[in-house]
Design a protein that fits this description.
The chain has 360 residues and is of the alpha+beta class. It folds into 2 domains: 8-175, Uridine Diphospho-n-acetylenolpyruvylglucosamine Reductase, domain 3 (2-Layer Sandwich), CATH 3.30.465.10; 179-319. It has helices spanning 8-24, 74-83, 101-107, 114-117, 120-123, 150-155, 189-200, 224-234, 242-250, 301-310, 332-345, and strands spanning 28-31, 46-49, 56-60, 65-69, 86-87, 124-130, 136-140, 165-172, 174-175, 179-186, 206-212, 215-222, 237-238, 263-268, 281-285, 290-295, 314-319. Strand 3 and strand 4 (65-69) form a beta hairpin.
Length: 360
């Protein structure tokens, strides 16, 4: 696959703009497609549009690695990969045609396939970033063997643009599954959680789960013989138009996400955590490890965060009232680490200021 035209002049211009902003300590708000502006805390600073720096730099289908620029539309990348029988294993949510690859990395959000394929940071092999001094830095590489700087590359996933502008990212791809089938079960929540954990501990080709309104949906992916055998083993009924269903879950277009009453919370907990007795509409993904909760803005926040802590995780306000903070407060030691990282990559504090926490 041929590379797109050289866009080095764009990076040079961006570098000068970053240097000027750092000298003036003027905040910049990094924006790709703007489809995830709802995520995180405040949106502060002058808009810094990254959409012009787009294109696939390199794709080696035999190595299952693709390197792509930050402004590349997610849809364009996925189309190119599909033409080669490949996909992004972490199934990033598609919030619209404007969604960019850089935004997917910065947000760090993964879709239904995350438990079986890995999270965003698990599939990042290398990054090239523009830091708060206007310097272009490279970390990691384009193959799994090159582990130099690998952890730094992973830091960029989910950092919400607070550490720098992701110019390019190298990602590990996965082959598209030969066959997929979805099985549906009518179960109470705790039995659904038990079964998800049981199946997750067995060699079954489970690649997605969703529980809501008394129904558990389980997606099986792989070669035809393995999928058919697993479907017979776990039972359940089949689902018509399963692709549409899982797309609605991945892209958060499912009816559950459209309730719009109160605030939508996202809880990451142990997969074995029981069903939360919160008197709120709930849905469960990732074999029990991801819980979605609609709650009233007032009074429920501390209760939800306490429940998440008690079950080995944390809770964030995904959409809605974020007056108590979008993300779970950090303990002093962890806050110190975050501040040190921010100071190292962005000493003037200009990138997406207060997007994650008010302290940086």
């Amino acid at each position: 696959m041929s590379a797109t035209p050289d866009l080095s002049a764009v990076v040079e211009a961006w570098s000068e703009r970053v240097k000027s902003a750092a000298a003036a300590r003027a905040p910049l708000r990094i924006v790709g497609g703007g489809t995830k502006d709802f995520y995180g805390q405040e949106l502060l600073g002058e808009r810094f549009d990254t959409s012009e720096y787009a294109g696939i730099v390199d794709h080696d289908p035999t190595e299952l690695v693709v390197t792509v620029r930050c402004g590349t539309p997610l849809a364009a990348l996925e189309h190119a990969l599909a033409d080669c029988g490949q996909m992004l294993g972490f199934e990033p949510p598609r919030f619209g045609a404007a969604t960019t690859v850089g935004g997917c990395i910065a947000a760090g959000l993964s879709g239904p396939r995350r438990p079986s394929a890995g999270a965003v940071r698990d599939l990042v092999l290398g990054v090239r970033v523009l830091d708060g001094r206007g310097d272009a830095l490279s970390f990691g590489g384009r193959v799994m063997k090159n582990v130099a700087g690998f952890d730094v590359s992973r830091l960029m996933a989910g950092s919400l643009g607070t550490l720098g502008i992701v110019l390019e990212v190298s990602l590990r791809c996965l082959p598209l599954p030969k066959v997929e089938a979805t099985r549906v079960f009518e179960l109470p929540p705790d039995e659904a959680i038990r079964r998800m954990n049981e199946w997750g501990g067995r060699p079954l080709p489970v690649t997605a789960t969703w529980y809501g309104e008394g129904k558990l949906h389980v997606r099986l992916s792989g070669v035809e013989s393995a999928v058919a055998a697993a479907a017979r083993e776990i039972g359940g009924s089949s689902l018509d138009d399963a692709d549409r269903f899982w797309s609605s879950v991945r892209d958060q277009q499912h009816a559950f996400f459209a309730r719009g009453v109160g605030s939508l919370w996202r809880l990451s907990v142990k997969s074995t955590a029981p069903h939360a007795e919160l008197d709120c509409a709930q849905a469960i993904e990732w074999g029990g490890a991801l819980r979605w909760v609609w709650a009233e803005p007032s009074g429920d926040g501390e209760r939800i965060r306490r429940w998440a802590r008690e079950h080995g995780g944390h809770a964030s306000v995904y959409r809605g009232d974020k007056s108590t903070g979008a993300f779970q407060p950090l303990d002093p030691a962890m806050l110190g680490i975050h501040r040190a990282l921010k100071s190292s990559f962005d000493p003037a504090g200009i990138f997406n200021r207060a997007r994650m926490y008010p302290d940086f």
